[in-house]
Specification:
Blueprint: H1 11-18, H2 29-37, E1 43-45, E2 48-49, E3 65-80, E4 83-90, E5 98-102, E6 106-113, E7 124-125, H3 135-138, E8 145-151, E9 156-161, H4 167-172, E10 176-182, E11 192-201, E12 211-212, H5 217-222, E13 227-230, E14 243-246, E15 250-259, E16 264-269, E17 273-277, E18 284-288, E19 290-293, E20 297-304, E21 309-315, H6 319-323, E22 327-333, H7 357-360, H8 369-383, H9 385-388, H10 406-409, H11 412-421, E23 423-429, E24 432-438, H12 445-456, H13 468-474
Parallel strand pairs: 1-3, 3-6, 4-12, 5-10, 11-15, 14-22
Antiparallel strand pairs: 2-5, 3-4, 6-8, 7-9, 9-10, 11-13, 15-20, 16-19, 16-21, 17-18, 17-20, 21-22, 23-24
Helix pairs in contact: 8-12, 12-13
The protein binds copper (II) ion (CU).
Copper (II) ion (CU) binds next to loops.
Protein backbone atom coordinates (compact mmCIF):
# COMPACT_ATOMS: atom_id res chain seq x y z
CA UNK A 1 0.00 0.00 0.00
CA UNK A 2 2.83 2.33 0.79
CA UNK A 3 3.91 4.41 -2.16
CA UNK A 4 7.54 4.80 -3.09
CA UNK A 5 8.51 8.27 -4.09
CA UNK A 6 11.37 9.74 -6.05
CA UNK A 7 12.66 12.96 -4.64
CA UNK A 8 14.31 15.87 -6.27
CA UNK A 9 15.80 19.05 -4.95
CA UNK A 10 18.99 20.44 -3.51
CA UNK A 11 19.25 18.60 -0.25
CA UNK A 12 23.00 19.22 0.06
CA UNK A 13 22.54 22.95 -0.27
CA UNK A 14 19.83 22.91 2.38
CA UNK A 15 22.05 20.77 4.58
CA UNK A 16 24.96 23.20 4.38
CA UNK A 17 22.70 26.17 5.02
CA UNK A 18 21.05 24.68 8.00
CA UNK A 19 23.90 22.71 9.55
CA UNK A 20 24.60 23.23 13.23
CA UNK A 21 22.47 24.25 16.16
CA UNK A 22 19.30 26.23 15.60
CA UNK A 23 19.81 28.38 18.63
CA UNK A 24 21.85 31.50 18.00
CA UNK A 25 21.25 33.15 21.37
CA UNK A 26 23.96 33.08 24.03
CA UNK A 27 24.39 29.61 25.48
CA UNK A 28 23.55 28.95 29.10
CA UNK A 29 26.05 27.07 31.27
CA UNK A 30 23.79 24.00 31.19
CA UNK A 31 23.72 23.95 27.44
CA UNK A 32 27.53 24.24 27.27
CA UNK A 33 27.74 21.35 29.69
CA UNK A 34 25.46 19.22 27.53
CA UNK A 35 27.43 20.09 24.42
CA UNK A 36 30.77 19.19 25.98
CA UNK A 37 29.47 16.06 27.72
CA UNK A 38 28.03 14.71 24.53
CA UNK A 39 30.70 14.77 21.91
CA UNK A 40 29.15 12.82 19.10
CA UNK A 41 30.73 9.63 17.90
CA UNK A 42 29.81 8.37 14.47
CA UNK A 43 26.52 8.49 12.65
CA UNK A 44 23.54 6.22 12.17
CA UNK A 45 20.25 6.11 10.30
CA UNK A 46 17.33 6.44 12.72
CA UNK A 47 14.95 3.51 12.93
CA UNK A 48 11.39 4.80 12.50
CA UNK A 49 8.29 2.80 13.43
CA UNK A 50 4.57 3.06 12.79
CA UNK A 51 2.27 2.95 15.84
CA UNK A 52 1.78 1.10 18.14
CA UNK A 53 5.44 0.10 17.91
CA UNK A 54 8.57 1.97 18.92
CA UNK A 55 12.20 1.67 17.84
CA UNK A 56 14.78 -0.16 19.96
CA UNK A 57 15.89 1.65 23.15
CA UNK A 58 19.08 3.71 22.85
CA UNK A 59 20.63 1.84 25.79
CA UNK A 60 24.16 2.97 26.59
CA UNK A 61 25.07 4.19 23.12
CA UNK A 62 27.03 7.43 22.80
CA UNK A 63 25.49 10.54 21.27
CA UNK A 64 25.65 10.33 17.48
CA UNK A 65 24.78 12.10 14.33
CA UNK A 66 21.34 10.60 13.78
CA UNK A 67 19.91 10.76 10.28
CA UNK A 68 16.11 10.81 10.07
CA UNK A 69 14.26 10.22 6.79
CA UNK A 70 10.62 11.26 7.09
CA UNK A 71 8.14 11.18 4.21
CA UNK A 72 4.88 13.14 4.20
CA UNK A 73 1.89 11.60 2.42
CA UNK A 74 -1.78 12.44 1.88
CA UNK A 75 -3.85 9.27 1.69
CA UNK A 76 -7.37 8.00 2.23
CA UNK A 77 -7.76 5.65 5.19
CA UNK A 78 -10.49 4.04 7.27
CA UNK A 79 -11.85 6.03 10.24
CA UNK A 80 -14.46 3.44 11.21
CA UNK A 81 -16.08 0.60 9.24
CA UNK A 82 -17.70 2.18 6.17
CA UNK A 83 -16.25 5.65 6.78
CA UNK A 84 -13.01 6.95 5.29
CA UNK A 85 -11.00 10.14 5.74
CA UNK A 86 -8.24 11.86 3.77
CA UNK A 87 -5.39 11.63 6.26
CA UNK A 88 -2.25 13.72 5.97
CA UNK A 89 0.61 11.76 7.51
CA UNK A 90 4.21 11.77 8.64
CA UNK A 91 5.53 8.44 7.41
CA UNK A 92 2.21 6.97 6.19
CA UNK A 93 0.57 6.51 9.59
CA UNK A 94 -1.45 8.50 12.12
CA UNK A 95 0.19 9.28 14.43
CA UNK A 96 3.38 9.64 12.42
CA UNK A 97 6.51 7.51 12.69
CA UNK A 98 8.03 7.30 16.17
CA UNK A 99 11.51 8.84 16.35
CA UNK A 100 13.86 7.69 19.11
CA UNK A 101 16.95 9.71 19.99
CA UNK A 102 19.15 10.33 23.02
CA UNK A 103 20.21 13.57 24.57
CA UNK A 104 23.18 15.08 22.75
CA UNK A 105 22.35 13.53 19.38
CA UNK A 106 22.85 15.73 16.36
CA UNK A 107 19.81 15.03 14.25
CA UNK A 108 20.02 15.52 10.50
CA UNK A 109 16.37 15.64 9.53
CA UNK A 110 15.40 14.87 5.93
CA UNK A 111 11.79 15.76 5.26
CA UNK A 112 10.25 14.71 1.96
CA UNK A 113 6.80 15.54 0.63
CA UNK A 114 5.39 12.87 -1.69
CA UNK A 115 4.88 14.09 -5.28
CA UNK A 116 1.18 13.08 -5.08
CA UNK A 117 0.57 15.51 -2.21
CA UNK A 118 -1.65 18.51 -2.94
CA UNK A 119 -0.08 20.88 -0.42
CA UNK A 120 3.20 21.96 1.11
CA UNK A 121 3.84 20.83 4.70
CA UNK A 122 6.51 21.26 7.36
CA UNK A 123 7.40 19.94 10.80
CA UNK A 124 7.57 21.60 14.20
CA UNK A 125 9.27 19.26 16.67
CA UNK A 126 8.82 20.23 20.30
CA UNK A 127 12.21 18.58 20.95
CA UNK A 128 13.92 21.27 18.88
CA UNK A 129 15.44 24.39 20.40
CA UNK A 130 15.11 26.86 17.56
CA UNK A 131 12.60 29.07 15.71
CA UNK A 132 9.33 27.26 14.99
CA UNK A 133 10.79 24.00 16.26
CA UNK A 134 12.09 23.48 12.75
CA UNK A 135 8.97 24.67 10.95
CA UNK A 136 10.67 27.57 9.20
CA UNK A 137 13.45 25.37 7.85
CA UNK A 138 11.32 22.46 6.78
CA UNK A 139 8.51 23.86 4.64
CA UNK A 140 8.52 21.43 1.76
CA UNK A 141 6.47 21.45 -1.46
CA UNK A 142 5.10 18.25 -3.04
CA UNK A 143 7.90 16.28 -4.67
CA UNK A 144 10.61 18.15 -2.73
CA UNK A 145 12.98 17.33 0.11
CA UNK A 146 14.43 19.60 2.78
CA UNK A 147 17.12 18.97 5.34
CA UNK A 148 17.79 20.71 8.64
CA UNK A 149 19.83 19.85 11.71
CA UNK A 150 19.26 20.18 15.42
CA UNK A 151 20.80 18.96 18.64
CA UNK A 152 18.69 17.28 21.31
CA UNK A 153 19.37 19.30 24.46
CA UNK A 154 16.56 18.16 26.78
CA UNK A 155 15.54 14.57 27.50
CA UNK A 156 11.80 13.89 27.34
CA UNK A 157 8.91 12.73 25.18
CA UNK A 158 7.92 15.38 22.65
CA UNK A 159 5.15 15.93 20.14
CA UNK A 160 5.91 16.90 16.58
CA UNK A 161 3.31 18.26 14.18
CA UNK A 162 2.83 20.10 10.93
CA UNK A 163 2.77 23.88 11.36
CA UNK A 164 1.76 24.94 7.86
CA UNK A 165 -1.18 27.36 7.67
CA UNK A 166 -3.96 26.66 8.38
CA UNK A 167 -2.16 24.88 11.22
CA UNK A 168 -5.33 23.61 12.88
CA UNK A 169 -6.45 21.85 9.72
CA UNK A 170 -3.07 20.18 9.13
CA UNK A 171 -3.07 18.83 12.68
CA UNK A 172 -6.76 17.86 12.49
CA UNK A 173 -5.94 15.75 9.43
CA UNK A 174 -3.49 13.65 11.43
CA UNK A 175 -0.16 15.46 11.07
CA UNK A 176 1.40 14.71 14.46
CA UNK A 177 3.61 12.15 16.14
CA UNK A 178 6.15 11.63 18.93
CA UNK A 179 9.90 12.03 19.22
CA UNK A 180 11.59 10.58 22.29
CA UNK A 181 14.84 11.99 23.63
CA UNK A 182 16.22 9.46 26.08
CA UNK A 183 18.52 10.56 28.89
CA UNK A 184 22.16 9.45 28.87
CA UNK A 185 22.18 5.70 29.58
CA UNK A 186 18.56 5.37 28.42
CA UNK A 187 15.26 4.97 30.22
CA UNK A 188 14.89 2.14 32.75
CA UNK A 189 14.38 -1.18 30.97
CA UNK A 190 10.84 -2.58 30.66
CA UNK A 191 9.47 -5.70 28.96
CA UNK A 192 7.12 -4.01 26.48
CA UNK A 193 6.89 -0.54 25.00
CA UNK A 194 4.03 0.82 22.90
CA UNK A 195 3.12 4.05 21.13
CA UNK A 196 -0.39 5.44 21.61
CA UNK A 197 -1.52 8.89 20.51
CA UNK A 198 -4.90 10.50 20.84
CA UNK A 199 -6.45 12.83 18.28
CA UNK A 200 -9.82 14.49 17.64
CA UNK A 201 -11.38 14.52 14.16
CA UNK A 202 -14.07 16.73 12.65
CA UNK A 203 -16.14 15.43 9.75
CA UNK A 204 -19.04 16.81 7.71
CA UNK A 205 -21.10 13.72 8.54
CA UNK A 206 -21.85 12.57 12.07
CA UNK A 207 -20.03 9.64 13.68
CA UNK A 208 -20.33 6.56 11.51
CA UNK A 209 -21.87 8.28 8.50
CA UNK A 210 -20.72 6.24 5.51
CA UNK A 211 -18.34 7.28 2.73
CA UNK A 212 -15.37 9.61 2.45
CA UNK A 213 -15.97 12.35 5.01
CA UNK A 214 -14.40 15.76 4.45
CA UNK A 215 -12.93 17.89 7.25
CA UNK A 216 -15.46 20.23 8.92
CA UNK A 217 -13.90 23.55 9.84
CA UNK A 218 -16.95 24.81 11.78
CA UNK A 219 -16.97 21.81 14.09
CA UNK A 220 -13.19 22.16 14.57
CA UNK A 221 -13.52 25.82 15.56
CA UNK A 222 -16.34 24.93 17.96
CA UNK A 223 -14.21 22.04 19.31
CA UNK A 224 -17.02 19.54 18.70
CA UNK A 225 -15.33 16.46 17.26
CA UNK A 226 -17.23 13.55 15.75
CA UNK A 227 -14.32 11.24 16.52
CA UNK A 228 -11.85 11.10 19.40
CA UNK A 229 -9.53 8.18 18.76
CA UNK A 230 -6.26 6.50 19.64
CA UNK A 231 -3.86 5.94 16.75
CA UNK A 232 -5.91 7.60 14.06
CA UNK A 233 -9.07 5.53 13.80
CA UNK A 234 -11.84 3.83 15.74
CA UNK A 235 -10.68 0.39 16.86
CA UNK A 236 -7.00 0.89 15.94
CA UNK A 237 -6.09 -0.88 19.21
CA UNK A 238 -9.02 -3.29 19.48
CA UNK A 239 -9.58 -6.96 18.76
CA UNK A 240 -6.62 -8.55 16.98
CA UNK A 241 -4.87 -5.15 16.94
CA UNK A 242 -4.93 -4.91 20.75
CA UNK A 243 -1.68 -4.32 22.61
CA UNK A 244 -0.45 -7.47 24.34
CA UNK A 245 1.54 -8.43 27.43
CA UNK A 246 2.06 -11.38 29.75
CA UNK A 247 1.37 -11.49 33.45
CA UNK A 248 4.42 -10.30 35.39
CA UNK A 249 5.74 -8.07 32.61
CA UNK A 250 6.35 -4.35 32.83
CA UNK A 251 4.69 -2.21 30.17
CA UNK A 252 5.58 1.33 29.11
CA UNK A 253 3.17 3.40 27.05
CA UNK A 254 4.48 6.45 25.23
CA UNK A 255 1.24 8.42 25.14
CA UNK A 256 0.83 11.57 23.11
CA UNK A 257 -2.03 13.89 22.33
CA UNK A 258 -2.06 15.50 18.91
CA UNK A 259 -5.32 17.32 19.60
CA UNK A 260 -5.87 19.64 17.78
CA UNK A 261 -8.29 20.69 20.53
CA UNK A 262 -9.04 18.27 23.33
CA UNK A 263 -7.06 17.52 26.47
CA UNK A 264 -6.93 13.80 27.26
CA UNK A 265 -7.65 12.25 30.65
CA UNK A 266 -5.72 9.08 29.91
CA UNK A 267 -6.70 6.03 31.94
CA UNK A 268 -6.33 2.26 31.69
CA UNK A 269 -9.36 0.53 33.22
CA UNK A 270 -8.21 -1.99 35.83
CA UNK A 271 -4.60 -0.77 36.06
CA UNK A 272 -2.73 1.78 38.14
CA UNK A 273 0.28 3.50 36.60
CA UNK A 274 3.27 2.67 38.82
CA UNK A 275 5.21 5.58 37.35
CA UNK A 276 4.26 8.51 35.13
CA UNK A 277 6.70 10.92 33.54
CA UNK A 278 4.34 13.87 33.88
CA UNK A 279 3.90 15.80 30.63
CA UNK A 280 6.69 13.67 29.17
CA UNK A 281 9.32 15.44 31.29
CA UNK A 282 11.70 14.33 34.02
CA UNK A 283 9.35 14.55 36.99
CA UNK A 284 8.02 11.12 37.92
CA UNK A 285 4.75 10.67 39.76
CA UNK A 286 3.85 7.30 41.24
CA UNK A 287 0.60 5.36 41.71
CA UNK A 288 -1.48 7.36 39.25
CA UNK A 289 -5.02 6.44 38.12
CA UNK A 290 -5.53 8.98 35.32
CA UNK A 291 -2.97 11.32 33.79
CA UNK A 292 -3.72 14.53 31.95
CA UNK A 293 -2.18 14.83 28.53
CA UNK A 294 -2.49 18.29 27.03
CA UNK A 295 -3.05 18.86 23.33
CA UNK A 296 0.50 19.04 21.99
CA UNK A 297 1.81 17.13 25.00
CA UNK A 298 2.76 13.64 26.07
CA UNK A 299 3.38 11.33 29.03
CA UNK A 300 5.27 8.11 29.64
CA UNK A 301 3.39 5.65 31.82
CA UNK A 302 4.93 2.48 33.26
CA UNK A 303 3.07 -0.31 34.99
CA UNK A 304 3.43 -3.98 35.80
CA UNK A 305 0.62 -6.29 34.74
CA UNK A 306 -0.23 -8.64 37.61
CA UNK A 307 -3.34 -10.46 36.40
CA UNK A 308 -4.69 -11.61 33.03
CA UNK A 309 -7.59 -9.97 31.24
CA UNK A 310 -8.45 -7.21 28.80
CA UNK A 311 -7.54 -3.78 30.10
CA UNK A 312 -9.28 -0.91 28.34
CA UNK A 313 -7.43 2.29 27.42
CA UNK A 314 -9.74 5.29 27.51
CA UNK A 315 -9.94 9.02 27.58
CA UNK A 316 -11.85 9.20 30.87
CA UNK A 317 -13.91 12.07 29.47
CA UNK A 318 -15.98 9.00 29.02
CA UNK A 319 -18.49 9.83 26.31
CA UNK A 320 -15.46 10.13 24.04
CA UNK A 321 -14.59 6.53 24.82
CA UNK A 322 -18.00 4.96 24.26
CA UNK A 323 -19.43 7.28 21.61
CA UNK A 324 -16.49 8.77 19.71
CA UNK A 325 -13.91 5.98 19.62
CA UNK A 326 -11.35 6.85 22.34
CA UNK A 327 -11.02 3.23 23.40
CA UNK A 328 -8.17 0.76 23.03
CA UNK A 329 -7.25 -2.60 24.52
CA UNK A 330 -4.32 -4.22 26.28
CA UNK A 331 -4.74 -8.00 26.38
CA UNK A 332 -2.79 -9.68 29.17
CA UNK A 333 -2.39 -13.44 29.18
CA UNK A 334 -1.04 -15.68 31.90
CA UNK A 335 -1.77 -17.17 35.30
CA UNK A 336 -4.58 -15.84 37.45
CA UNK A 337 -3.65 -14.41 40.84
CA UNK A 338 -6.83 -14.75 42.87
CA UNK A 339 -5.32 -12.88 45.80
CA UNK A 340 -4.91 -9.77 43.67
CA UNK A 341 -8.23 -10.25 41.90
CA UNK A 342 -10.72 -12.98 42.75
CA UNK A 343 -13.47 -12.51 40.12
CA UNK A 344 -17.05 -13.11 41.42
CA UNK A 345 -17.02 -15.44 44.40
CA UNK A 346 -20.73 -15.36 45.23
CA UNK A 347 -23.93 -14.52 43.42
CA UNK A 348 -27.41 -14.51 44.93
CA UNK A 349 -30.67 -12.70 45.56
CA UNK A 350 -30.51 -9.54 47.66
CA UNK A 351 -33.53 -8.81 49.84
CA UNK A 352 -33.09 -5.65 51.91
CA UNK A 353 -34.52 -5.52 55.42
CA UNK A 354 -38.19 -4.57 55.16
CA UNK A 355 -38.24 -5.53 51.47
CA UNK A 356 -38.33 -3.23 48.45
CA UNK A 357 -39.96 0.14 49.11
CA UNK A 358 -41.81 -0.20 45.86
CA UNK A 359 -43.45 -3.45 46.85
CA UNK A 360 -44.36 -2.00 50.25
CA UNK A 361 -46.79 0.38 48.57
CA UNK A 362 -50.46 -0.56 48.56
CA UNK A 363 -51.40 -2.60 45.49
CA UNK A 364 -52.84 -0.41 42.78
CA UNK A 365 -56.00 -1.06 40.84
CA UNK A 366 -55.20 -1.97 37.23
CA UNK A 367 -55.62 1.17 35.13
CA UNK A 368 -57.17 1.49 31.70
CA UNK A 369 -57.37 4.00 28.88
CA UNK A 370 -55.72 7.42 29.20
CA UNK A 371 -55.07 6.97 32.95
CA UNK A 372 -53.01 3.89 32.11
CA UNK A 373 -51.06 5.77 29.43
CA UNK A 374 -50.44 8.70 31.83
CA UNK A 375 -49.20 6.34 34.55
CA UNK A 376 -46.97 4.65 31.95
CA UNK A 377 -45.50 8.02 30.96
CA UNK A 378 -44.51 8.73 34.59
CA UNK A 379 -42.65 5.41 34.71
CA UNK A 380 -41.06 6.14 31.32
CA UNK A 381 -39.85 9.56 32.51
CA UNK A 382 -38.32 8.00 35.63
CA UNK A 383 -36.89 4.81 34.15
CA UNK A 384 -36.50 4.73 30.36
CA UNK A 385 -36.05 8.36 29.40
CA UNK A 386 -32.28 8.67 30.04
CA UNK A 387 -31.37 6.15 27.35
CA UNK A 388 -34.30 6.17 24.95
CA UNK A 389 -34.84 9.97 25.19
CA UNK A 390 -37.96 12.08 25.70
CA UNK A 391 -39.44 11.44 22.26
CA UNK A 392 -38.32 7.83 22.02
CA UNK A 393 -35.69 8.70 19.41
CA UNK A 394 -32.88 6.90 21.28
CA UNK A 395 -29.20 7.86 20.90
CA UNK A 396 -27.42 7.10 17.61
CA UNK A 397 -24.99 4.16 17.84
CA UNK A 398 -25.86 3.57 21.49
CA UNK A 399 -29.53 3.18 22.38
CA UNK A 400 -32.13 2.12 19.81
CA UNK A 401 -35.19 4.27 19.10
CA UNK A 402 -38.58 3.26 20.51
CA UNK A 403 -40.39 5.63 18.13
CA UNK A 404 -41.72 3.86 15.00
CA UNK A 405 -39.58 0.90 16.05
CA UNK A 406 -39.92 -2.18 13.83
CA UNK A 407 -38.27 -4.27 16.56
CA UNK A 408 -40.91 -3.19 19.09
CA UNK A 409 -43.95 -3.35 16.83
CA UNK A 410 -43.24 -6.77 15.33
CA UNK A 411 -43.09 -8.73 18.61
CA UNK A 412 -44.69 -7.58 21.88
CA UNK A 413 -43.55 -10.60 23.89
CA UNK A 414 -39.94 -10.09 22.81
CA UNK A 415 -40.16 -6.45 23.94
CA UNK A 416 -41.68 -7.48 27.30
CA UNK A 417 -38.93 -10.05 27.77
CA UNK A 418 -36.30 -7.31 27.26
CA UNK A 419 -37.93 -5.11 29.91
CA UNK A 420 -38.40 -7.92 32.44
CA UNK A 421 -35.21 -9.93 31.93
CA UNK A 422 -32.90 -7.42 30.25
CA UNK A 423 -31.26 -7.66 26.85
CA UNK A 424 -27.68 -7.81 25.64
CA UNK A 425 -25.86 -8.41 22.37
CA UNK A 426 -26.54 -7.14 18.89
CA UNK A 427 -30.02 -6.15 17.70
CA UNK A 428 -31.14 -4.41 14.51
CA UNK A 429 -33.74 -1.66 14.84
CA UNK A 430 -35.06 0.17 11.77
CA UNK A 431 -32.10 -1.12 9.76
CA UNK A 432 -29.41 0.01 12.23
CA UNK A 433 -27.32 -2.28 14.43
CA UNK A 434 -27.02 -1.67 18.17
CA UNK A 435 -24.70 -3.47 20.57
CA UNK A 436 -25.41 -2.62 24.18
CA UNK A 437 -26.74 -3.90 27.47
CA UNK A 438 -30.19 -3.12 28.79
CA UNK A 439 -30.54 -4.20 32.43
CA UNK A 440 -33.65 -6.02 33.69
CA UNK A 441 -36.07 -3.41 35.04
CA UNK A 442 -37.27 -3.70 38.61
CA UNK A 443 -40.94 -2.98 37.85
CA UNK A 444 -44.17 -4.71 38.89
CA UNK A 445 -46.38 -6.41 36.30
CA UNK A 446 -48.78 -3.45 36.43
CA UNK A 447 -45.94 -0.97 35.94
CA UNK A 448 -44.56 -2.89 32.96
CA UNK A 449 -48.06 -3.05 31.47
CA UNK A 450 -48.52 0.70 31.94
CA UNK A 451 -45.15 1.79 30.57
CA UNK A 452 -45.36 -0.54 27.57
CA UNK A 453 -48.90 0.64 26.84
CA UNK A 454 -47.59 4.22 26.94
CA UNK A 455 -44.72 3.37 24.57
CA UNK A 456 -46.99 1.47 22.15
CA UNK A 457 -49.42 4.43 22.12
CA UNK A 458 -46.74 7.06 21.45
CA UNK A 459 -44.48 8.24 18.59
CA UNK A 460 -46.17 6.40 15.73
CA UNK A 461 -46.16 2.94 17.31
CA UNK A 462 -48.95 0.42 16.79
CA UNK A 463 -51.30 1.40 19.67
CA UNK A 464 -51.08 -1.97 21.42
CA UNK A 465 -52.68 -2.35 24.86
CA UNK A 466 -50.39 -4.36 27.16
CA UNK A 467 -52.14 -6.05 30.09
CA UNK A 468 -50.62 -7.25 33.40
CA UNK A 469 -51.66 -10.75 32.34
CA UNK A 470 -49.45 -10.55 29.23
CA UNK A 471 -46.55 -9.44 31.45
CA UNK A 472 -47.11 -12.31 33.90
CA UNK A 473 -47.00 -14.87 31.07
CA UNK A 474 -43.62 -13.56 29.85
CA UNK A 475 -42.23 -13.33 33.37
CU1 LIG B 1 0.86 19.86 6.82
Amino acid sequence: MKKKAKFIGGSMVALLLSAGLFSCSSESKDTKQILSDNVISGEMIAELTAPPFVPKPVGSRKAKKLIVHMEITEEEGTMVDGTTYMYWTFGGSVPGSFIRTRVGDEVEFHIKNHPDSKLPHNIDLHAVTGPGGGAESSLVAPGQEKVFNFKTLNPGLYVYHCATAPVGMHIANGMYGLILVEPEGGLPKVDREYYVMQGDFYTKGAYGEAGLQPFDQDKAVKEQPDYVVFNGSVGALNGDKALTAKVGETVRLFVGNGGPNLVSSFHVIGEIFDKVHIEGGSMVNENVQTTMIPAGGAAMVDFKVDVPGTFILVDHSIFRAFHKGALGMLKVTGEENLQIYSHTTKEGVYTPEGGSKKKAEAPKVALTGQAKIDAGKRIYDATCFACHQANGEGIPNAFPPLAKSDWLNSDVNRALKAVIHGLSGEITVNGKKYVNVMPAQNLTDDEVANVMTFIYNSWGNKKQDVTPDMVRKVR
